[in-house]
Design goal:
Shape: globular
Number of strands: 9
Oligomer: single chain
Radius of gyration: 24 Å
Strand content: 5-15%
Strand order of the largest sheet: 2-9-4-5
Structural class: alpha/beta
Helix content: 40-55%
Length: 333
């Protein structure tokens, strides 16, 4: 199977798309391992969109969309990986028109081009319907992000002012839903940290999308005993490694939380899970990311988001101090 996948990859590179599609369909039919079938499906989506075979591309997507109802999370992850490839393939297809200086809104294009664009619009509209159905049941960041992506593509293919107005409205609604969603990637143990209302234990910070200015009230840490009082006079570098300044999880102390964007490659490969980003905070800002743990494909996105977080000011005996801690991001497909 490995050899056949590699052969199909070479055929795609050589633009022998019919041969590549035949080989990949054969792999899908013969493979017992789900991983091989999923890889073949993702490659097939690329091939079908490359050759403008929207019927087969939609059938492939529909198959995975329907399977999610019986296979639950595993199949939903496969669907998102395939949908991500479909979005990338559609973008590449549209880029070809731009490369040749062709406006997709031009109604005077040759019939072949107009037919191709209409079939692409229909394909995107089916994806929009699927993303909406998933979002209605599971309003998570991944499904809302997919909906936003596909609506943005459909908007770029508007036929006229009326068509543009229709999709512009839906696109704006999707962006608003994505921004205000309480089901964030940035959560610990599946518990959304931005849910409004009082929480037990540590106080939660305000929503990062709030227009209100965060409170300037400083969080006070218990004064260390005399044996550790000298830590306040240490150099910044020394203090950053001081275990007495280790605050553990910083999620609850944040006044601004930035949700990482799911990397397309990670979506396509089905990468998911918890990423823990270790940071040094001073003056309420992340001044350094020291390391991260978790799935490799997700670490960079988590680190980039962590650098933008803000926290309550922390003092020891009235003086600002650096803290070591970590931020957890739970990526789920």
């Amino acid at each position: 199977m490995h050899a056949r996948i590699e052969r199909a990859r070479a055929l795609v590179a050589a633009h022998r798309l019919d041969n590549a599609a035949g080989e990949l369909e054969s792999v899908r039919a013969a493979a017992q391992d789900k991983a091989f079938r999923n890889i073949a499906s993702i490659m097939l989506m690329n091939v079908y969109l490359e050759e403008g075979n929207y019927g087969r591309a939609e059938a492939l997507l529909e198959e995975n969309f329907q399977a999610r109802a019986t296979q639950k999370d595993e199949s939903l992850g496969n669907y998102f990986a395939l949908a991500g490839q479909a979005v990338n393939g559609a973008r590449t297809h549209l880029a070809r028109y731009r490369t040749f200086g062709i406006s997709t809104a031009d109604s005077n294009l040759p019939p072949e081009a107009l037919s191709d664009l209409n079939r692409l619009r229909s394909f995107l509209e089916r994806m929009i319907a699927q993303a909406k159905e998933i979002s209605n049941v599971r309003a998570a960041y991944d499904s809302l992000s997919l909906l936003e992506d596909v609506l943005g593509l459909r908007l770029s293919l508007a036929r006229d002012d009326e068509d543009q107005s229709k999709w512009q409205s839906q696109y704006a609604d999707a962006r608003e839903a994505l921004a205000s969603s309480q089901t964030q990637i940035a959560s610990l143990g599946g518990i959304p940290p931005l849910r409004p209302g009082k929480s037990t234990g540590t106080p939660a910070g305000p929503s990062p999308y709030s227009t209100k200015r965060p409170s300037d009230t400083a969080a006070v840490i218990k004064t260390p005993d005399k044996d550790h009082a000298s830590s306040a006079t240490q150099s910044p570098a020394d203090k950053s490694d001081d275990p007495e300044n280790d605050a553990g999880s910083l999620n609850a102390f944040a006044t601004k939380k930035v949700v990482p964007k799911y990397p397309p490659m990670a979506k396509q490969s089905g990468a998911a899970g918890l990423v823990r980003v270790y940071v040094i905070v001073e003056g309420g800002k992340v001044i350094a990311v020291t390391r991260s743990e978790g799935p490799i494909l997700l670490r960079q996105a988590a680190e980039d988001a962590a650098r933008q977080w803000l926290f309550q000011a922390v003092t020891i005996e009235g003086r600002p101090t650096r803290l070591n801690g970590y931020i957890d991001f739970n990526f789920s497909l």
